[in-house]
Amino acid sequence: MGVPETTAIYLNMLLLFTVVLLLVYAAGTVSRKLMVGAAQKFSSRTTTQFDDLLIRNNVFTHLAKVVPLIIVVQALPLVFADFPAWIKPLRTLTDVYTVLLSIWVIRAFLRTIKDFMKGTDLFRDKPVDSFLQVISIFLYFVGGLLIFSLLTGKEVWAFITAMGAASAILLLVFKDTILGFVASIQVSTNDMVRIGDWITMEKYGADGDVIEINLTTVKVQNWDKTITTIPTYYLISDSFKNWRGMQRTGGRRIKRSIHLKISSIKYLSQDDIKRLSKIQLIQKYLEERNEQINTYNKENEIDKSLLINGRNLTNAGVFRAYASAYIEKNQFVHKELTMMVRQLEPTTTGMPIELYVFANDVRWAYYEGIMADIFDHLLAAVKYFDLEVFEHPAADDMRYLSNSLAGTRMPGYVAEAMQN
User: 351-372 in b/e burial notation, b at 16+ Cβ within 10 A?
Assistant: First the structure.
């Protein structure tokens, strides 16, 4: 008894399908090994990194899939010769796969370009990710239109026309992407931020190096190694501080004050001037200034029985001169940038003497060390000028005061309260 004709047709189709499936698998394996192997041999003989990146991003692996695809397309009419109604839908699926494979190849190539550009000095600090993401979005959009056209049988323009009515919804959905794209262009064009820049954005708790700039976000690695993610468009809508200029000049600003106790400021007598003249940094300054002041007072017949008459040196002014001489001689102060010691407006916490200078090492740890050494020295030097640094009373000060007053004649309940 023979095999029914219908069964024979299905068996023939299954047999051909199995043969084609095995052929596709074999062809895919062989083409991948040959193409990737040839690429690896070629890249080993070249000095450029571009071909190595092509291999790493699987460009040749995706290209090798073209051979099995060609076999499938050519075999469809043969395998399904007895089922002509199946050929068109299957051909549509192969066309969809062709579109997807094209997107994969182009995406792998774009990743290669990104890695290659990031490895060069010219583009290492540029927001390459942002522009490639825009290209990727456009690529997926075009691929989606083509797939829609293949599956529905409608023209691409018909779908684009239909999208016009939904443009408001699309703008809402892709708002962040559009804003990020515009921001990326402005950031790149105006050179506002580069990868590797140290930025500070207090509003979002960002204080560290920029490690990535893409279409929608900027990643900042803070000094405590945490990561802060900031929307890209916030860089053009909000204020932030970029420390690149400081790093370029090689000087980092020191702006800190010493608050002198106002009651310790006084005129200097000749004995005081003679004693302070032993300080080498201001010896010449004191001699010149003292001579100028004495000459002026003599010419104007100033009565110096009181120091307040005429011109005089003060211990605060001489201390400022000493601080200026000290920073000028300090090897860790940048000599080509501003060096200034200035007196600020007196406050309830004393009279501030501010140092406005630049350390010649921008590295954080070294900068802190330079600043600490300068102020350690100046704080220790204050007492040589009969000056005092203002500080609020501490618990020990209050106990000392209460103990000092405890022996004086006062009501018992007052002394007891102060002792407590």
Answer: bbbbbbbbbbebeeeebeebbe
Residue with tokens 């007072």: 297
CATH number of 198-249: 2.30.30
The domains of the chain are located at: 5-189, 198-249, 252-385
pLDDT, tens digit, for every residue of 378-394? Answer: 999 999 999 999 988 77
Assigned token pair, 33: 């090994």
Closest CA to 322 of 298, 286, 368: 286
**Would you place residue 259 in the very low, low, confident or very high pLDDT band (cuts 50, 70, 90)?**
very high
- Look up residue 317 and give its amino acid: G
The single-letter code of the amino acid at 368 is E
List, in sequence order, every residue forming a beta bridge with 221; answer none if it has no partner.
Answer: 209, 227
**Contact yes or no for 245/238 (Cβ under 8 A):** no
Please state, in angstroms and rounded to a whole number, the distance separating the CA atoms of residues 253 and 255: 6
Rounded to two decimals, what is the model's pTM? 0.54
